[in-house]
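Input (structure):
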C-alpha cells in the first residue's frame, strides 16, 4: 500500500497472486453514469491483466472465461464492456504543484472474438495511461473479497479503505456529503434524504466491508446543527481473530451471509462514545420515530378531506351535526370514523343540491 511518502510508483508495485493493484486516482472517481458491480469487477480484472505493460500504448488480450467471475455466460461481459466504454470519469490529478480535474474514458477501442471461448482485445487511452504513470498511491484489492460483495457500494468502499488502510498516521477522513455520495456511486438525485442513503447504501456497505475485509470500518454523520453535511470515514486494522473470522466467512456460503454479518455487528447511535478499535462496530444515524397522530390531527384531516371533496359546504356545521347524531345514540359508534363522516357529508351535500334546485 502506498502512502505517497515512499515515492514508489504505483506501476512498479507487484501484488501477490490474489491481489489487484489499482491506482488511487481510479479509486476516487466521479462517474457520469454509475457502473454496476459486475462492470467494476471486470474493469479491475482488465487492469490486473494489463498491469505489466499498463503504461504502454499496446493492445492487451484476455480470455473471456477469465472475466466471467461467478457467471457462466458472456452476456454480462458484453454489457460491462459497453458500459465501461460509455463512461467518462473525473479524477483529480496533480502536476507541477497544481491540481487539475482530468476527464477520461475508462475503456477505449476493443475487439471481442465471437467464439464463446474466445478472447477480448482492449486498450487504454493516452490520458488514462498518463494517470497510471503519475500515480504513487494505490489500493491492493483481494480478488476473493472483491467477488464476495453483493453491492457495488461495498466494492467502492472497500477500494477506498484499501487505499488508506496502511497509512501510518491517519485513521479517519471527512468528506462533504455530496462528494461522498458521488464518490461511492449514488446516481444524481437519488436517495437525497440521509436516512435513506444511510439505510440503503452506508449500512449494507459497512457491514460487508467490515465482515469480509482486513479492516473494521465506521461511517459517522457530520452535522451542522441538525443537518447532516458530511460523513467521517474511519478504519482500523483487525485483530488476528477477526481476520480469521473474515476468512472463514469468505469460504462460507453466500446464503444467509448478511444475516450472519449483521448478527456480528453492534448498532449504536451516531453520537455514542467511541469504542475500542478492536471491537467491530457499525455506526448508523439514529432517526427519530415519527410522532403518532393525535385525535385533533385526525379531526383536522377529516375536515380537510371533506372540504376538498365538497367545496362550498360548511364543513364545521356538518361536523357538529355529525357528532350530535352520534352522541344522541341514534347511531352506533362507527368502526371507521372518517369513512362514516365522509358518507354523512356526501348525504348532506346531496340534500343541499336538492334544495337549491327545488
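Output (sequence):
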Amino acid at each position: 500500500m502506498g502512502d505517497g511518502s515512499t515515492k514508489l510508483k504505483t506501476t512498479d508495485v507487484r501484488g501477490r497472486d490474489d491481489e489487484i493493484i489499482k491506482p488511487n486516482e481510479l479509486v476516487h472517481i466521479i462517474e457520469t453514469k454509475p457502473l454496476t458491480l459486475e462492470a467494476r469487477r471486470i474493469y479491475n480484472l482488465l487492469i490486473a491483466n494489463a498491469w505489466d505493460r499498463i503504461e504502454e500504448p499496446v493492445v492487451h488480450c484476455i480470455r473471456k472465461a477469465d472475466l466471467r467471475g461467478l457467471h457462466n455466460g458472456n452476456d454480462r461481459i458484453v454489457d460491462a464492456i459497453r458500459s465501461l466504454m460509455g463512461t467518462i470519469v473525473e479524477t483529480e490529478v496533480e502536476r507541477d504543484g497544481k491540481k487539475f480535474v482530468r476527464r477520461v474514458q475508462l475503456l477505449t477501442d476493443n475487439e471481442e472474438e465471437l467464439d464463446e471461448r474466445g478472447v477480448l482485445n482492449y486498450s487504454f487511452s493516452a490520458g488514462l495511461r498518463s494517470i497510471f504513470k503519475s500515480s504513487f498511491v494505490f489500493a491492493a484489492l483481494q480478488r476473493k473479497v472483491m467477488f464476495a460483495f453483493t453491492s457495488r457500494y461495498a466494492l467502492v468502499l472497500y477500494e477506498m479503505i484499501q487505499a488508506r488502510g496502511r497509512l501510518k498516521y491517519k485513521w479517519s477522513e471527512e468528506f462533504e456529503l455530496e462528494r461522498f455520495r458521488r464518490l461511492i456511486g449514488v446516481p444524481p438525485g437519488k436517495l437525497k434524504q440521509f436516512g435513506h442513503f444511510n439505510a440503503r447504501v452506508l449500512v449494507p456497505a459497512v457491514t460487508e466491508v467490515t465482515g469480509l475485509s482486513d479492516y473494521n470500518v465506521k461511517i459517522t454523520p457530520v452535522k451542522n446543527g441538525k443537518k447532516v453535511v458530511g460523513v467521517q470515514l474511519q478504519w482500523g486494522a483487525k485483530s488476528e481473530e477477526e481476520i480469521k473470522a473474515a476468512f472463514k466467512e469468505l469460504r462460507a456460503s453466500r446464503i444467509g451471509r448478511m444475516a450472519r454479518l449483521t448478527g456480528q455487528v453492534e448498532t449504536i447511535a451516531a453520537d455514542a462514545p467511541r469504542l475500542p478499535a478492536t471491537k467491530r462496530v457499525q455506526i448508523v444515524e439514529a432517526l427519530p420515530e415519527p410522532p403518532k397522530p393525535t385525535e385533533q390531527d385526525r379531526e383536522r384531516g377529516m375536515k380537510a378531506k371533506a372540504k376538498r371533496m365538497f367545496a362550498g359546504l360548511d364543513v364545521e356545521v356538518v361536523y357538529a351535526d355529525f357528532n350530535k347524531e352520534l352522541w344522541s345514540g341514534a347511531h352506533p359508534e362507527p368502526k371507521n370514523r372518517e369513512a362514516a363522516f365522509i358518507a354523512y357529508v356526501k348525504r348532506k351535500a346531496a340534500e343541499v343540491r336538492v334544495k337549491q334546485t327545488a
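Notes: DSSP finds 13 helices and 13 strands in the chain. The two ends are 90 Å apart (CA to CA).
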